[in-house]
Amino acid sequence: MKTIKYTILRRIIQLSFLFLFAGGNYFGWEILRGNYSSAIIADSLHLSDPYAVLQILVSGFIASSSVLLGALLIFLIYALIGGRMFCSWICPMNIITDIAFRLRRIFKIETEAKVSVSRNLRYYILALSLIVSAVFGMAAFEIISPISMLHRAIVFGSGAGWAIVAVVFFVDLFVLKAGWCGHICPLGGFYSLVGKQAVIKVKHDKEKCTHCMDCFDVCVEEPVLDIVGKKSDFIRSGACTNCGRCIEVCNDNAMKYSLKFDLKN
Amino acid sequence: MVSRRKVIQRVLEGAVFVGGGGLIWGKSIKANTKADYVLRPPGALKEKDFLKACIKCGQCVEVCPYDTLKLAEPGDGIANGTPFFEPRTIPCYLCTDMPCTDSCPSGALDLKVLTKEEEKPDILNSKMGLAVIHKESCLAYWGIRCEACYRACPLIDKAITLDYEVNKRTGMHAKLLPVVHSDVCTGCGVCEQACVAEKAAIFVLPLDKATGEVGDHYIKGWEKEDEKRINEEVEKADDDKDVKSAIDYLNDDDLIED
């Protein structure tokens, strides 16, 4: 059945986080203070971005225990529910890139980069970010991250960050389909690795599949759907963001959220 | 089986990616931190460590009750998302409960920096910078009564004192000259904001930009502790054979022959 219930739910959650963070800054709410790099819930529980903390550690600084534990907690949560659930359910950049993705489909923009860009690029950038962090003694991705600039632009009302967000948007729209989230973002790469063996996965039922290819149309991580129509199994790739778009568009009920407990690859 | 050609190609590609990418990335980091100096919140680690440690969450900015602290934006030349303040706009009012330092989750702002010898952390131990006076643009040094910075200073008569001097130009007035004491000054910048000059004649610079260093080859002979050092140095020199040879080299015959 066609529905957009997961998309609506995702937007509500994404916007709620932004709203709470922004409220924390502008009105002093203590529900959620800080931003996506590090935050504190109800003035008592620290949460931190494990990738940011990893960069800090590599740059040669032993972060305080509150940040380390906060990062560990987030790490464990995403290892359990699927790393890239951050990408599609929390990350504010996802709203921007999803709009670009949708506009591409609506206006049938088929432009692709002249050179083929591998989806593995993000893992190389991830590795490079750690090298640069170590060499320059500074969390390398954090300093240029368009995601951080976006949420800081919203939460702290700074203007200059929007320029780079616009760059991401137009690259996604005109240069490379799913360019940022699907190819470049090292944070997405990081969470792909974290969520490899997560418990929440989309499950495909080959028997129900009519090969309509609708799911391929909406998926920002197309290659993860390689088993669709071929065998009944979980979408096992860590790159799957669990966004639920394939479930929404499938007229045959061949996709659904499911729990996976085995550790096969 | 991967061909040798393929392997070599892969290695070269990898090298170009790491080299080229690293270079561009490094350049953008440099461009992002190109500001000559930046003033950090109280309790900040040394700039180099601070840049490593800060996770850019902005919690210090949020809890600052005076909106003193700001997060750096692209284009500021200050590492994106790190907190700083500009005293001429809003100085630090030295909250006694140190909310910013206390809120930092990463340790980039550390209460230990504000703690001296096992005591409680104290905002007055902060060294965000040091106020420096440019005499030529300071009205008080012209001989006009001003004292704006002195009156504004939260550590009046400690961090800024007034020196009296005869105004030689008039021959009948006194100059009341503000003087900053670096052992007390916290670098809060209230003076900089208070200065009546169009461009502040008293302004805060980071400690390393505003301080000199004598080195250890001068000794304050009038201070007992420092005087001890001279004896230690002499003892050390006695142990050092090279010193003896250095003194004796003039008596060396070879020197004359050359």
UniProtKB/TrEMBL annotation, chain A:
The chain crosses the membrane at residues 12-32, 52-79, 123-141, 153-176. It comes from the Bacteria. Keywords: 4Fe-4S, Electron transport, Iron, Iron-sulfur, Membrane, Metal-binding, Repeat, Transmembrane, Transmembrane helix, Transport. GO terms for cellular component: plasma membrane. Residues 200-230, 231-260 form the 4Fe-4S ferredoxin-type domain. The keyword Membrane applies. The keyword Cell division does not apply. GO terms for molecular function: 4 iron, 4 sulfur cluster binding; metal ion binding. This is Quinol dehydrogenase ferredoxin subunit NapH.
UniProtKB/TrEMBL annotation, chain B:
It comes from Marinifilum breve. This is Ferredoxin-type protein NapG. InterPro entries: 4Fe4S_Fe-S-bd, 4Fe4S_Fe_S_CS, MauM_NapG, PSI_iron-sulfur_center. Residues 44-74, 81-114, 176-207 form the 4Fe-4S ferredoxin-type domain. The lineage of its organism: Bacteria, Pseudomonadati, Bacteroidota, Bacteroidia, Marinilabiliales. Keywords: 4Fe-4S, Electron transport, Iron, Iron-sulfur, Metal-binding, Repeat, Transport. One of its GO terms (molecular function) is 4 iron, 4 sulfur cluster binding.
